[in-house]
Amino acid sequence: MSLVISHLSLVIFGYLFGSIPWGYLISKAKGIDIRKVGSGNIGGTNVIRALGIKWGLLVAVLDVLKGVIPVYLALNFLTPHQYIGGGDWQIASVAITPVLGHIFPVWLGFRGGKGVATTLGVIFILLDWKILLPLLLVWLLVLAISQISSFSNLLMVSFLPLAFWVSSFSLAYFILGLALFALIWWVHRENLKRIKEDQEPKIQLKKSTQ
C-alpha cells in the first residue's frame, strides 16, 4: 500500500508542481498581467515579448524544471520490479503530470501555457542523450531560422513518439510520446491557424524596459 501511495504522491506532486504559473507570477511582480499581453500565454515566449529576454529565459528555465524534478524523483524513488506491469508505466504516468499541470493549472482556473518548456524538462531526463541532442539541435536551428516559436515547437514534438521508441523501445514511453504530441498540438491549434495564414508573430529579443 505504501508503494502505491508513493506513486500517487508523485503523480499529485507532479501536477501541482507543474501548475505553478511562473510566467504569471514573475510578470505580476513586474506590474504586468501576462495574460493580457501579446498572445496571452503565460510561457517564456510571451514573457520575452512583454519583459525582455532576461525574464523570459528565467521563466523558461523554471518551466523546464517543472518537468525535470518530478521525473527525476520518479526515476530515483520508484523501484520498477515492485510494480505489476513494470516501472516504465509508473514513470510515464508521473512524467505526463507536470505537463498537464502547466497546460491546465489549478491556480489559474485550468488555463495555462503550451507545455513545451515543461516537456523539454521531461525529455531531458528520459531520452538517451544520443537521441536528445540531435532533437534539440534541430529545434534550435528551426527556431533560429524561422523565429517562430510555435512552428519549431510543433516540429520537435512531432518526433517525440519515434524518439522515445528509439531511445528506450518501451511501449509506455512510446505512448507518453504520443500523449505529449497530441497535447501540445491541441493547445497550439490557434497557432496553427495563424501559421497557415502567415500571421504568427515572430520572437523579437527586445531589451526589457522594466
Explain this structure.
The protein has helices at residues 2-18, 22-29, 44-51, 53-77, 87-103, 116-126, 129-146, 149-158, 160-168, 171-187, 189-196. It is globular and about 45 Å long. The chain has one domain (2-196). The protein is mostly helical. Residues 81-85 have low confidence and may be disordered. It is built from eleven helices and no strands. 70% of the residues lie in helices and 0% in strands.
Short account of what is shown:
Helix content is 70%, strand content 0%.
Structural class of the secondary structure composition?
mainly alpha
Number of strands: 0
Largest sheet: none
Helical fraction equals over 70%
The residue ranges in which pLDDT falls below 50 over 5 or more consecutive positions are 81-85
Instruction: Let me know the average pLDDT.
Output: 88
What is the end-to-end distance?
A: 51 Å
Q: What share of the residues does DSSP label as strand, in percent?
A: under 5%
Radius of gyration: 17 Å
Helices and strands in order:
Elements: H1 2-18, H2 22-29, H3 44-51, H4 53-77, H5 87-103, H6 116-126, H7 129-146, H8 149-158, H9 160-168, H10 171-187, H11 189-196
List keywords for this structure.
210 residues, mainly alpha, 11 helices, 0% strand
